[in-house]
Design a protein that fits this description.
Blueprint (H helix, E strand, L loop, with lengths): L6 H9 L16 H13 L3 E7 L2 E10 L12 E6 L18 E3 L2 E3 L8 H10 L11 E6 L7 H9 L6 E4 L8 E4 L2 E9 L14 H22 L11 E9 L9 E9 L6 H15 L6 E11 L2 E2 L5 H10 L4 E3 L5 H5 L4 E4 L14 E3 L3 H16 L1
Parallel strand pairs: 3-6, 3-7, 7-15, 8-14
Antiparallel strand pairs: 1-2, 2-6, 4-5, 5-16, 8-13, 9-11, 9-12, 10-11
Helix pairs in contact: 1-3, 3-9, 5-6, 7-9
């Protein structure tokens, strides 16, 4: 028997430990408290704990916990159960309950991070409760990350240390108990067109960046059509990679020549597509569109992004997940930390009890009916992979 607190106590304490991450510094918080909570429970249960700060921010902490002395197992746990500890910000006015107090109502548990995805850790611990660590033939590791909702720098920091290579990894993001084997990647960038302001009465006095943006957008639209025609993956609802023109800002007054325009886009590549080369191609198209003009272009990365992720549809791990859960493997439209673990050579699926429809919403909740099956599924994986 592992010495974890009662499940409801763990769930309440996880919800009660604020860990908002946000690119807006006003909202951004340290996740130290929730990581220390997890470290305390896992330590008391006999796990070995490593705490790792984000490479860019010592206020953001990641946790690695191992059931065994990992050096003796070539640092290769048979099973890794992982998730992020941070949540998105919340709009207090829209919440009917305190986002940091777990509230039981209508067969649901309400609270910020209930579905996405703090409570997953409580279910992992509950699944481990009746296991004697010394009876585990193969090690199990738990990873809890920081900043998944913003930069994914927690997962990136851990992946750089390469804490394991050929493990089986389950990311407990909200998938309503369906094993997910693939999602698209994501990247966002701003292109700034710099021209020259001047009096509107004489266009020769300046270089109008709004005029230039028409040329640029036309070139990018043409490139996008050709690019999308080249790739498709029918396992996704939107089978093509996408490029969304998200916002365009420029100018201040009708009687001034517009000196600067900023244009922002997002890219959603399919598995197998390389973000860096897509970005390079876009830069080339943009530069060519405005070459031999007086306009200058600047590119500013907004979110470095995450690669697409795919586990082979025929992999034995996916088959195992389908048989344990009784649910077919699916693809999803949202991004996760899965590509970072998959890139380490570890077969990774995304599987959790929450519902993505609840994620990033006011009055976020977890349906109680999901809890028992999730714990049973986790026990199934532990039994088949570690005992
Ligand atoms: Zn999440």
């Amino acid at each position: 028997m592992l010495n974890f607190p009662p499940i409801k106590q763990m769930m309440s304490e996880l919800i009660a430990s604020p860990s908002v991450s946000c690119i807006n510094a006003q909202w951004d918080m340290s996740n130290r408290a929730i990581i220390q909570l997890l470290a305390k429970w896992l330590g008391e249960a006999g796990f070995q704990i490593e705490l790792i700060e984000n490479k860019d921010d010592p206020n953001k902490l990641n946790l690695l916990a191992h059931s065994h002395e990992m050096v003796e197992h070539n640092r290769n746990p048979a099973l890794v159960l992982t998730g992020h500890t941070d949540t998105v910000p919340y709009d207090e006015a829209l919440w009917q309950t305190d986002p940091f107090r777990m509230t039981e109502k209508n067969n649901r548990f309400y609270g910020l991070g209930s579905s996405d995805m703090k409570l997953f850790f409580a279910f992992v611990f509950e699944a481990l409760r009746n296991i004697d660590l010394s009876q585990l033939k193969k090690p199990i590791s738990i990873i809890a990350t920081a900043d998944e909702e913003t930069t994914m720098n927690g997962a990136k920091t851990i992946a750089e240390i390469k804490p394991f290579q050929s493990s089986k990894v389950i990311v407990g993001e909200p998938t309503s108990l369906h094993p997910v084997y693939s999602h698209k990647g994501m990247m966002t960038e701003a292109i700034i067109i710099k021209g020259q302001t001047g009096h509107s009465s004489d266009p020769q006095r300046g270089n109008n960046a709004i005029d230039a943006s028409l040329v640029l957008l036309q070139a990018l639209t043409a490139w996008r059509s050709k690019w999308q025609a080249k790739y498709h993956d029918n396992s996704f609802k939107v089978a093509q990679p996408t490029m969304n023109f998200g916002c365009l800002h420029g100018g201040d007054n009708p009687n001034r020549i517009c000196g600067q325009v900023e244009f922002q886009y997002d890219i959603r590549p399919l598995p197998g597509m390389d973000l860096a080369s897509i970005k390079a191609e876009i830069h080339q198209v943009a530069q060519q569109a405005l070459q031999d003009t007086h306009f200058k272009l600047e590119f500013r990365s907004l979110l470095e992004g995450i690669p697409a992720y795919a586990l082979d549809k025929n992999s034995s791990f996916l088959k195992q997940a389908e048989s344990i859960t009784g649910n077919k493997g699916i693809t999803v439209a949202f991004g996760t930390e899965a590509p970072f673990w998959q890139q380490l050579g570890s077969e990774t699926i995304v599987l959790g009890p929450g519902d993505i429809a609840q994620a990033h919403q006011a009055n976020e909740y977890l349906d109680q009916a999901m809890i028992k099956p999730m714990i049973t599924h986790l026990q199934g994986f532990i039994k088949q992979l570690c005992l």
